[in-house]
Description:
The protein is mostly helical. It is built from seven helices and no strands.
Amino acid sequence: MVLAVLVLGLPKKQQRKALRYGILGAFVFRIAATLFAVYMIRLNWVKLVGALYLLYLPYKHFSQAGGAETRRKPPPARAWLGMSPFWTTVVKVELTDIVFAIDSILVAVAMSPKVWVIICGGVLGIIAMRMLIGSLLKVVERYPALVDGAFVIIAWVG
């Protein structure tokens, strides 16, 4: 959902292209995070840090100034560090992918100490992201309040 929101600031024709680039990065980051999770599973402090981070995300989202309308409105794509708005958005999508790859694996580690559960969760996350991202983009445009719902779920998991 967050990836879909990131690309909404681009023109319609560029949104899917930016997501395609972002999905490629997501595959790489999720695979790396899943492999790393085998080691993280033994570290209890990682679960605590992950939970605090997951609680911080909704806090940051809901404490924005301007209320619900401002919070749900996608920011326009802007150039950054000499890159075009398109490539800036792709970089933001990739950075978000890194955070969510780590994020989702932390959730899996916190929920189960079984390696097969973590690996299955990582693989299913990749498949689901690839299959749903285009549809999710349309749904978020139509129902912007779903973004708030996603952050409520993130808080619950934390």
